[in-house]
Amino acid sequence: MAKEPRTFHIWVDDEVCKSCGLCIANCPKKILRFSDRINKQGLNPMECIDHNSCIGCLSCAEICPEVAIQVTGLTREPAREEETHG
């Protein structure tokens, strides 16, 4: 039986995001961009434009210096580099 495709959802805390763009630059699927919304800091936080294309790699969440991003839909957290080569 074929597995159902996994859908991930990227959540950003608009008020914590400082619009540094690291998540956008590091997304392998290029599905992140600056939104048109303006937060209380006067910045445009990141948004995901295609949740169906998200592969759940956590690149965005791991690189965010403000810890403003969460990825949901994961059954388990992917193994980190240190754990696989340990």
From TrEMBL:
Keyword terms of this UniProt record: Iron, Iron-sulfur, Metal-binding
PROSITE patterns: 4FE4S_FER_1
Domain 4Fe-4S ferredoxin-type: residue ranges: 17-66
Record bears the keyword Metal-binding: yes
InterPro entries hit by this protein: 4Fe4S_Fe-S-bd, 4Fe4S_Fe_S_CS
This protein's record includes keyword Phosphoprotein: no
Highest taxon, organism lineage: Bacteria
Protein name from the UniProt record: 4Fe-4S dicluster domain-containing protein
